[in-house]
């Protein structure tokens, strides 16, 4: 099968997300200028640089009460900071609950019953039991072609690692089994890993 996206795919559901999978989930915690916390998962998320460490996530839809974007981007515009929480398999249900199109005044931590902790460097909350949390200062918000498509780039200025995920000085993802997003309504979980050495290593 071949199709040009501008002409449509003719399938019951868009296959694009299923092709680029699995994708890590950035569970983005923000706080607005009004002091309200927000927590939402984004699967257009990844690390993009080592030095300084930087991450990105993309927001691709809008809410009517947020002027062409969603709560996360709107809050980051106001405060310049956000926290990326890593999602473990055990948190799949509460993560999913936090993904709803709730009004801006809804605090997803409270709505989904998610324990929070205050970040150490930035003025925002983080998911208290997350395997890892990355405190970030916003560096760029880039508007892409298409309505409501924004990339947020942040520099990681603080890193929280859960103690039980550290094994012999390494962060062991098998200890918490990261959740990943696939296409449609599908997810994946990482339970097995293997190593390869690059040529010349």
Automatic annotation (TrEMBL):
Concerning InterPro entries, the annotation shows:
Flavin_Rdtase-like_dom, Split_barrel_FMN-bd
Question: Which residue windows are transmembrane per the record?
Answer: none
Any one Gene Ontology molecular-function term assigned to this protein's record: FMN binding
Fetch the Gene3D superfamilies from UniProt.
Electron Transport, Fmn-binding Protein, Chain A
What SMART domains does the record point to? Flavin_Reduct
Its domain of life?
Answer: Bacteria
* Residue ranges annotated for the Flavin reductase like domain, each copy included: 18-173
Q: What is this protein called?
A: DIM6/NTAB family protein
């Amino acid at each position: 099968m071949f199709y040009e996206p501008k002409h449509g795919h003719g399938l019951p559901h868009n296959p694009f997300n299923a092709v680029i999978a699995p994708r890590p989930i950035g569970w983005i915690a923000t706080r607005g200028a009004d002091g309200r916390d927000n927590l939402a998962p984004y699967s257009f998320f990844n690390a993009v640089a080592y030095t300084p460490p930087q991450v990105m996530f993309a927001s691709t839809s809008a809410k009517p009460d947020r002027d062409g974007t969603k709560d996360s981007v709107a809050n980051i515009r106001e405060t310049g900071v956000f926290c990326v929480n890593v999602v473990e398999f055990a948190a799949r249900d509460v993560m999913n609950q936090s993904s709803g199109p709730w009004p801006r005044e809804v605090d997803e931590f409270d709505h989904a019953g998610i324990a929070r902790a205050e970040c150490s460097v930035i003025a925002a909350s983080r998911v208290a039991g997350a395997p890892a949390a990355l405190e970030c200062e916003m560096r760029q918000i880039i508007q892409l072609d298409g309505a409501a498509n924004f990339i947020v780039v942040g520099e990681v200025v603080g890193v929280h690692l859960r103690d039980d995920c550290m094994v012999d000085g390494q962060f062991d993802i098998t200890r918490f089994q990261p959740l990943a997003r696939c296409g449609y309504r599908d997810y994946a979980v990482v339970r097995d890993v293997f190593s390869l050495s690059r040529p010349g290593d």
